[in-house]
């Protein structure tokens, strides 16, 4: 049901980097660095991987507004129902705001572009920009932290082995 092409990431940094670079070579790429959705007005800490792959990123503030049903499961096997729950609302709504591009190449605090602390700085800057646009509170919690608190797993959906 997504209006944009999506690709599943593996949570393996090197493999995800290769996949994202391959997709970027074919054109623009939409990355959700937070990695998940949240029902409350909080923004999880962003992964810095996106800051390594392009000279510029355009943050997009996306907020879901619902009246009755939340389409944001934490249980991996239930995620397939999320779009159905969202559409069951009497007036489901998305608010989308394209924000000013962020230069990922700008050297901050004396760190080079390939330096991990620079990439974390860029990710934190993008998190602040998104938080301000959405009026969300920033957190230090990661996606993994959230899933461990809510459902006792890391939120990783494992592919089922095919029967021979």
UniProtKB/TrEMBL annotation:
Kindly list the places in or outside the cell where this protein is found, as annotated in its UniProt entry. Membrane
Q: Does the keyword Membrane apply?
A: yes
Can you supply a Gene Ontology BP term from the record? cutin biosynthetic process
Query: Per its UniProt entry, which superkingdom is the organism in?
Result: Eukaryota
Its GO CC terms are:
membrane
The UniProt record lists the keyword Lipid metabolism: no
Q: What is its main location?
A: membrane
Task: Keywords in alphabetical order, please.
Answer: Membrane
List the GO molecular function terms. glycerol-3-phosphate 2-O-acyltransferase activity; phosphatase activity
**Entry-linked PANTHER family:** ANCIENT UBIQUITOUS PROTEIN, OS05G0280500 PROTEIN
The name this protein carries in UniProt is Phospholipid/glycerol acyltransferase domain-containing protein
């Amino acid at each position: 049901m997504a209006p944009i092409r999506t690709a599943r990431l593996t949570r393996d940094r090197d493999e995800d980097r290769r996949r994202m670079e391959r997709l970027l070579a074919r054109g623009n790429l939409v990355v959700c660095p937070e990695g998940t959705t949240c029902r409350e007005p909080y923004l999880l800490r962003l992964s810095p991987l996106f800051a390594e792959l392009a000279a510029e990123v355009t943050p997009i503030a996306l907020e879901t507004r619902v009246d009755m049903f939340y389409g944001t499961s934490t249980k991996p096997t239930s995620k397939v129902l999320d779009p159905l729950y969202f559409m069951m609302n009497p007036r489901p709504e998305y608010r989308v705001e394209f924000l000013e591009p962020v230069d990922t190449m700008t050297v901050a605090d004396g760190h080079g572009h390939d330096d991990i602390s620079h990439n974390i700085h860029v990710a934190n800057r993008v998190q602040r920009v998104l938080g301000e646009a959405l009026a969300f509170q920033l957190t230090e919690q990661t996606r993994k932290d959230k899933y461990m608190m809510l459902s006792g797993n890391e939120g990783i959906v494992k592919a089922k082995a095919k029967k021979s």
